[in-house]
Specification:
With 151 residues, the chain is of the alpha/beta class. It contains 4 helices and 6 strands.
Length: 151
C-alpha cells in the first residue's frame, strides 16, 4: 500500500473520531495526518512527512484553541468563565430526589437543584459544578458567580 494512502486512511479515521467525540484534538490530528499524506503524495521521504504532520497538527491545535476557543483539554477541570455563567438548561422533569440529567459540553450530567430552587418544568441557570454533578437554580441573582468545586 502506498504511504500516502496510509496517511489519508489515518486522517479519515481521526476525522470520524472527531465527529463521534466532538473534541477538537482529533480535528487537529486529522489535518496533520492529511498534511503528511500530501507530502507523501508529492514524493517526500518519511522524515519530512512526519515533520509536516507534527507541525500541522500542533499549529492547528493552537489555532483551534486560541483563535476559535475550542477546548482541546476538555477532560481537565476548567476555571470559571463567562460562558459557564450564562449557561441555561431546560428541565422537563425532576426526579423525586431533586435531580435530573442534562447535557453539558456534549455529555450527559446529573444535575441537582440548588436549595432555593423551585422544582418545575422550565429553564434553569448553572449555579455551580462539582466533579460529578451540576447545581441548577431558577434565576441568576446579580453578583452570583458560578462556584466550581473539584471534589
Amino acid at each position: 500500500m502506498q504511504a500516502y494512502l496510509v496517511w489519508f486512511l489515518l486522517a479519515a479515521m481521526a476525522l470520524v473520531m472527531e465527529i463521534l467525540s466532538r473534541r477538537a484534538y482529533f480535528l487537529a490530528a486529522s489535518i496533520g495526518l492529511l498534511s503528511g499524506g500530501i507530502v507523501a503524495l508529492l514524493g517526500g521521504t518519511l522524515i519530512p512527512q512526519i515533520a509536516v504532520a507534527l507541525v500541522a497538527s500542533a499549529t492547528d491545535a493552537f489555532y483551534l484553541r486560541h483563535r476559535l476557543g475550542y477546548m482541546i483539554h476538555d477532560w481537565s477541570p476548567r476555571e470559571e468563565s463567562e460562558e459557564d455563567e450564562s449557561l441555561t438548561f431546560f428541565v422537563e422533569e425532576w426526579d423525586d430526589d431533586a435531580t435530573t440529567v442534562v447535557s453539558y459540553n456534549g455529555t450527559p450530567w446529573r444535575a441537582t437543584a440548588a436549595p432555593e430552587a423551585r422544582l418545575a418544568t422550565g429553564h434553569y441557570f448553572l449555579k455551580g459544578r462539582s466533579r460529578d454533578q451540576l447545581i441548577l437554580a431558577n434565576e441568576r441573582r446579580r453578583g452570583d458567580r458560578v462556584k466550581l468545586h473539584q471534589g
